[in-house]
Amino acid sequence: MKKPMRSWRGLLIVAAVLIVAAMLLGACGSDDASTDASPTAGGEPKAGGVYNFPLGAEPISIEPLNTQESEGWHVNHQIFQSLYCLQIQSDGTTTKAVPDLAEKTEVNADATVFTFTIKQGVMFQAPVSREVTAQDFVDSWNYNADPKNKSATTYIIAPIKGIDADTGYSEGPQLSGLKVIDKYTFEVTLQYPFADFPATLVHPITQVFPVDYAKEIGRKAFFDKPVGTGPYMVDTWKHNQSITLVKNPDYWNTGDSGNSATAGYVDSISMPIYTDVSTEWLAFQKGTLDYSSLPTGNFKAAQNDPKTQDGTWTVKAYPSTSVYFISVAMNKPTLGGDENLPIRAALNIAADREVVSNIVNEGISIPSDSIVPVTIPGYVAGTNPYPYDPAKAQPKLDEFTGTLPSEIPYWFNSGSGHDKIAQALVDGWTKAMPSLKFKLSGVETNSYWTQAGENKFDGLVRMGWIADYPSIDNFIYLFTTSGGKYGSYSFYSNPEVDKLFEQARATVDETERNGLYNQAEKLILTDAPCVPVYTYRDARATNNRVAGFTYNAFGQINMWDLWVK
Amino acid sequence: MIAYIIRRLLQLVIVLFGVTLITFGMLKLVPGDPAVALAGKNATPEKIAFVRHERGLDRPFYVQYIRYVERLVHGDLGESLYTARPVAEMIREAAPVTIQLAVAAVLIELLGIPLGVFSALRQYSFWDTTLTTAALILWGIPVFVLGYFAMYIFGLKLDWLPIGGVGPTVLGIIPSTWESWQTLILPALTLGVIEIAYISYMQRASMLEVSRSDFIRTARAKGLTERKVIWGHGFKNAVIPVMTIAGIDLGALIGGAIITETVFNRPGIGLLIYQGINQRDVAVIAGGVLFATFFFVFANLLVDLGYAWVDPRVRLED
What we know:
The structure holds two protein chains of two kinds. By secondary structure, chain A is of the alpha+beta class. Chain A contains 18 helices and 19 strands. Chain A has helices spanning 2-28, 70-79, 134-145, 197-200, 211-217, 219-224, 277-286, 299-303, 306-309, 341-349, 353-360, 393-397, 418-432, 445-453, 473-476, 481-486, 495-505, 510-527, and strands spanning 50-52, 84-88, 95-99, 102-107, 113-118, 178-182, 185-189, 232-238, 242-247, 268-272, 291-293, 313-328, 366-367, 408-413, 438-443, 460-466, 530-543, 546-547, 563-564. In chain A, the strands form five sheets. In chain A, strands 11, 12, 13, 14, 15, 16 and 17 form a seven-stranded mixed beta sheet that branches. In chain A, strand 6 (178-182) and strand 7 form a beta hairpin. The longest helix of chain A has 27 residues, at 2-28. Chain B has 14 helices and two strands; from the N terminus they run H-H-H-H-H-H-H-H-E-E-H-H-H-H-H-H. A two-stranded antiparallel ribbon of chain B has the order 1-2. Chain B folds into two domains: 2-73, no CATH class; 88-310, Orthogonal Bundle (MetI-like fold). Chain B is mostly helical.
């Protein structure tokens, strides 16, 4: 009796495994997706084909309501449009806001009331397929500002009258600052002067979408398959696997309507999700992808790869609108206050940005002693009164009359190589000023930002800032009294800076306005509440089977301009 | 038997609640506030407080936990803090991908059984030493290193297999096309090969132990052929503990899938948990861990039930 029973044991265990799998799968449904897309064969320039573009993670959202991180932006950018869009300027570096769906923009004398006239004939994608009106813009903005809809990006539209300063959401059912004038015109009243307000209108939260349709099909359905006005529309979104966009067959801009996107060339855009950048890079090398980010440490090797040398690939670092700097905790004893200015100035003078950029960052970043990225309109080089000159660091430090701190705390979020950057800076500082001692402390990222916001750190605090819109305002704000608390975490405050900042915001003339921002920047840098280090560049590889590739400072790729050779 | 099943199912329920409690507790103890990220850039303390309140993150730990359990009892796993997508739906999408990988890896690791027997039968021979050393080396290689290496060699250099991704299936887990099988080969081998090393090592030890038992000596004394002694008596007894390990491994592989799925770009439970941890998305982490636990415990329950059915001693002991 025992023998046959024993022979069943192995089978039973295997069967158990399969039964568990089968039971669970009964509720799980089937999976019929593939994230691998083969490259289309080359040929003469023509419409058609597939562009294979990887996303580095599942987007949080691709609809205007909540698009926030780069993955969401990449998708959203092909589907939606706003009053303004981003355009690379003739210098090849600066990225500026230019009118997109806005036909005309008028502003009052103190930059508190803007009147926008939108283009006629702009159409929503199918199945909505109707003309966009001024009311659609007002509805879209009201919807996004509604606290019920929980957008994480309403800080962009915070200047509009009717946004609650405390919650960041609409005070009532409608934003009081929005008024429809006629079918194609609407007026926006701000809570405070803000001449660069049109620059904020490149952000997804200001894009137009059919609110009536979104409400009709429901939040979940619109989240998965939102409808915009752009040249590409969502075909499928297989969560955590891929997003596929297809050409909008009824795209409204059949001619050349100003700066607006033209109809796309490629039939579809395949966006598989690669959460690991090393895997993405391998898939690119294999030819599965037409674009890839580069894993840390691979930039120079990729540039020297035979395929780059023979023109199969292009490997390039594109300047971004992000800056890397070290904030100084200005309300703390170690380095804060006027008495510690010589130490802060000396740290700026001896900050070896070249070593950080060229050695630690493989030459990808651009060394910069400005708090404004080189890509932002209004950027002026040479504003920092403490330029790099290690020989002058010790004499500057000698101006300090107090007792030097026994050690200067240097905080950074662990991972992402910040420890190496910290070490390179500290090496430069201690070489130029041997009497200074530093204590490096890495903190887990989530915890780091929470603690930084709660002003828990003394000494030096690693910071980075990505522009949300192409205006120098983004960066000067960081060192206003408000921005010191909620942006740079330097807790720096200078009434003169605040005054110049407010004056600039109320100045309609762009040249005059940027001049005021530059004055404020000079004051900030003179007080040295930070040590600017570099402007980021994004290292990317592209397959040259696809032509028409551009990459602006916000990392946007106009995929409608691409064609398969 | 029925009493045994009921007892084990009750244990399963307790384990699942214990797991949710520990997961919640750990996430609460770790510093960092998801409300800061949810509130967006430039957020004032007032806005962060508003968001914290809106999402219920300002409520005491026990209130949050009780609310979670209440919803769990009704089959609601909550929704992602960031995307507002139902966690149950996210699990439903991710589970087949992980189960496919785990089952494939377990089937591969069973190859360790014949290798272990082969090794035991030639104890201290060249082949035994070679296989044992190879097993130890494989066992020591981190799964992500092996994964990248495999993709580099077989995906990129030899161009035999795709790099990452998943393919179409039937019944959720069985690849339905050659391309789909191809996407499974490298991750399953990566996860399974390391386990082959482990299983063969265990099988070798078990086989050697059994071969020194009295009943084997008796079998030989009775004049049975060596083939019958080894396969009829020795192997059948030696394989049982190893199969138990393989059963437990199925659950453990769900955990191991976190790294494998990230490296091979497979959108399964492991990747879901990994992303949840990065974002402090409590509901997603708890949902993923709950699934992994359920899978682990239930698979082992079925293995135990199988034993109880074929071996009365197990029933008596329990």
